[in-house]
Specification:
Elements lengths: L1 H12 L15 H20 L13 E4 L2 E4 L10 E4 L1 E2 L3 E2 L3 E7 L4 E4 L5 E6 L6 E2 L4 E6 L1 H32 L5 H28 L7 E5 L4 E6 L6 E2 L7 E4 L3 E9 H4 L7 E5 L8 E8 L9 E9 L10 E8 L6 E4 L4 E2 L4 E8 L2 E9 L6 E6 L6 E5 L1 H11 L1
């Protein structure tokens, strides 16, 4: 019985596990199934991958070079192009630019005071017409009394020097003094007379009222009071800003702000036309006085000054205006439509027809545009044929092909 139980326990302990089913080559069936499934997925992915796009075809009748393009007679691009022949240019008017009316500074005067003091009267108002020498205002100043005192002292010293000279000359004549004493006395008289004249000139220059400390300030020229900054009881001094501005408005200066690219064509002595919204329908002609050699660093403009006759005083200072200039170009200059110009930001180009259907890109130097036209200073000659409209299409085609 014991042997039988031992045999039974031994059999339970060493019984081997059940083996997994295998393929004919000895590998598990599930591994083979995984390989087959993976191969199927790869095939499906390959079938779903999009096909490569076909190579881009070049437009028919078009040949492109780095800086030229050729068109066949039947090319579709012809219907977008317009050709024109280059012609010479003479004088023309620029496009109008903004400006402002100002005083003719050569016909105006700013009035201040020669001494410190206090304003006692003001005899004119803003906009008044005055004549040369007309009183403008008065002031009282202690400096006037000091100048009068200096003048009286100079007079006394001059009289004393003359009296001393007469006495010395009489003594020299009596042979009681040597001649050199008379020469010294004459020198003292000349010094005293110089001091006397200086004191008199100082009083005359300030035009002080005789016998008082009041000073009358008069108009230095005829004109209109266009600026006034003086009132009664105001304390004034020579170093303060001008108290009055008087200007002759029969002429005015109009200052135009011209862009740097346009100002190179404008010359002093040229003709300018001025219009202003305050005088609709009126066009006034003036002369260019000055083209500034210094430009505005922020607006990139240069001021150009025009002198304009204003006999009827219709133009008022500080009014807005628009100005255009008559420009003369060299004989070799030509003019084309502004639409013919293409640019890369630094240089300007046009497309020139070198032979029928062949267009070459050529760099040019252009002036300032006016009324849709542009003068060409360098790069084109009269008689050449260019692309007036559609040049940008040719330029884009060259850029695409590179």
């Amino acid at each position: 019985m014991a042997n039988s139980l031992e045999t039974s326990h031994a059999t339970d302990a060493v019984q081997p596990p059940v083996a997994a089913p295998t393929h004919a080559w000895g590998r598990p069936i599930w591994w083979v199934a995984a390989v087959v499934a993976g191969a199927g997925l790869i095939g499906v992915a390959s079938a779903l991958e999009p096909a490569s796009p076909p190579a881009e075809s070049k437009p028919a009748g078009l040949s492109v070079e780095p800086s030229a393009i050729g068109l066949a007679p039947d090319a579709a691009q012809w219907k977008f192009l317009k050709l024109s022949r280059v012609g010479p240019i003479g004088s023309h008017w620029t496009d109008s630019v903004p400006g402002r009316v100002g005083l003719d500074e050569s016909a105006s005067a700013k009035v201040g005071v020669p001494v410190q003091g206090r304003i006692t009267r003001v005899m004119v108002e803003l906009g008044d017409h005055v004549t040369a020498g007309q009183p403008l205002f008065t002031l009282v100043s202690p400096e006037v009394d000091e100048l009068r005192s200096a003048k009286r002292q100079a007079d006394v010293e001059a009289d004393a020097a003359r009296t001393a000279l007469a006495r010395i000359e009489a003594t020299v004549a009596a042979r009681a003094l040597p001649e050199k004493e008379a020469q010294s006395a004459r020198q003292r008289v000349r010094v005293a007379e110089v001091a006397q004249q200086l004191a008199d000139d100082k009083l005359h220059s300030i035009r002080a009222t005789p016998g008082t400390s009041e000073l009358v300030v008069s108009a230095p020229r005829a004109g209109v009071v266009v600026d006034k900054a003086v009132v009664v009881s105001q304390q004034v001094a020579p170093d303060v800003p001008p108290l009055l501005t008087i200007a002759d408005l029969s002429t005015v200066w109009v200052t135009a702000d011209v862009f740097e690219s346009q100002v190179v064509d404008i010359r002093a002595g040229g003709t300018a036309e001025v219009t202003t919204p305050s005088l609709p329908g009126d066009t006034m002609t003036g002369t260019v006085l000055m083209v500034s050699a210094v430009g505005d660093p922020e607006r990139h403009t240069s001021p150009v000054r025009i002198r304009l006759t204003n006999a009827d005083r219709r133009l008022r200072p500080n009014a807005y205006a628009r100005i255009r200039f008559s420009v003369q170009h060299p004989d070799a200059s030509v003019e084309i439509a502004a639409t013919a110009i293409v640019s890369d930001g630094e240089r300007q180009y046009v497309y020139v027809q070198e032979s029928p259907g062949r267009f070459v890109r050529r760099e040019v130097t252009a002036g300032s545009a006016h009324e849709g036209r542009m003068p060409i200073i360098k790069g084109l000659a009269p008689g050449e044929t260019i692309v007036e409209d559609g040049a940008i299409l040719l330029d884009n085609q060259i850029a695409i092909s590179q």
